[in-house]
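Pasting as-is:
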Amino acid sequence: MHIGILATVFIIFLFLVFSFVFTQSITAFYFYLRSKDKILGMQVLLNWFPAVILATYLISLLLVANGMPLWEKNTSIVFAVIIAVSMVSTECCYVIYLLGLMPLSKKGYRRGVIICIGVSVLLFINIMLAIAAIQGFTAQVFLFVISYFLPITMILVVICGIVGFSLSPKISDRKKRHHLKQFSTICIVFLPFIVLDITLARNSIIVFSFAGFLGGSVLSFMYFSKYFYVNYNSDVEYSAAKAFYVQHNISQREREVVELLLQGLSNPEIAKALFLSENTIKTHIRNIYKKLKINNRYQLINIMKSKN
């Protein structure tokens, strides 16, 4: 297969998008492990599966671009199954999370999840049937499978995004309403690129829907950065924390330690500020974490802000 200048530019673009999505996924994963924040956990999922799709597609393009021998059939099918699972998982993660944010009854939410899973299973079966029907599976055919099924897979995500955005004004909870608007917008970004993929003839290896991953990832990164800054800048309203301290049996000395932890001070700095030994401060911190059932100051900030 001849790789032209436009295709080469597309491969470079794809590599940059993959790097951006993968780096963001790793960053969000690190802070999720530290904070156990569900929003950050969702950021990981919404970036991890696209990263797998992008990486697999990129490898396929590079194989074709370098004129390497055709893959063994078993190898190419394994890659096809990986990307099929990733596409369907991406769609499920987006849709189920949006359904959870929408103003739906428990019955409505369960019904939506069942429909989403049912559609995803049918889509996955169709992809597998298409793969099974292909004789002499090659890298070129694999590229076609991706370019054909990716836009179809993301259509449900776009539809759910549009519905979610239209329902967001009905949510009274400001934080939840903001989450729904943000994630719905990320989904809607795919729409123009899906239209391009469906309407334009497939005469090249270029898939416009991947540009949707870029747009969605940029919006996701902006939201992730703002969310982390707002929620983990240690700006806790101490006056509103009194009931929280009483609820968890936090002593007066432990409260002083908590407030200095939230200000970002290290253990030696806290010891100096309170005129105590560093070992004493470590003991206080261990007791605080044990009472709150947490492991680090990120989780401390998270639990303090979520309770105030």
